[in-house]
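Researcher: I'd like a structural prediction for the single chain below. Treat it as a standalone chain; there are no partners to consider.
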Amino acid sequence: FNFIEYTNASEISFSADGKKITISDGSQKTTSTQGDFALYPVTEDAPKETVALTDTIVKLFVAAAKYTREDQYELIVSHIFIGDDSILASDRFIAFKKNIDRELPKTAIPRSVAERVSSIDPANFSQTENKLFFKAGKVLYGFQKTEATHVDMRKFFDYKKDTSFHAPKSELIGFNEMCLSMSPLKYCHPTIEIVNDKLILSAIDGDYGVDNEKEIDVVGKMESKFKYDAGTLNRLLKTSPDDELSFCRVKGMMYITGDSGFTSLIMELL
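Model: Treating it as a single chain, here is the predicted structure.
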């Protein structure tokens, strides 16, 4: 890079001889010892058989990544998982699932990789035992795999939809953001319940005495109160491509879905 900074040439050439490498622009050159080339690792070739990823599918990678968190000790929460016709992710508090129109090879993709490749449009995906490959045009991107293996989370989304209600996500997002902005510690655990066809959002702050409440007209039913983390729910709601969402409470979870096929869940706080 130092050579490139001081040359005016539009092209440069590289040549290797033994343990030395030479960079030249035709009028000047630099030769440097680089060690034994035989000791350098050989990059794996990408498999010829690939799976085409559309712009829509690649952008789902970054949507799923929002349901993960960086954690070097918890591989499940720091990766998204692709396989069969599904893209899945979870940080143990919220979870994401989206079915797509093609079969994907089973693998785990680190959160950072999922975020980086989201701008590649389109891409052909393949993998080896140690690497993930994304090819866009003439450019091949390669990423080292981690120790994580594919985790099939689809069973967590197999639930019986007895009762549910519909609500606009913007109303919930706005209430949560208001509560978080008024909390000195920037966390809040509101509850929601349905009373007389109205969704009642309530946040009681016993430490600082700032209580918030909001009523939303809704269609549907839900049994008893549901307590959640405001910041976590907003992270989920903001990834939804739908404005109107369906909420279905099953035991200690709230399933949140949309007409686009968006499917997610959030764990109840006890």
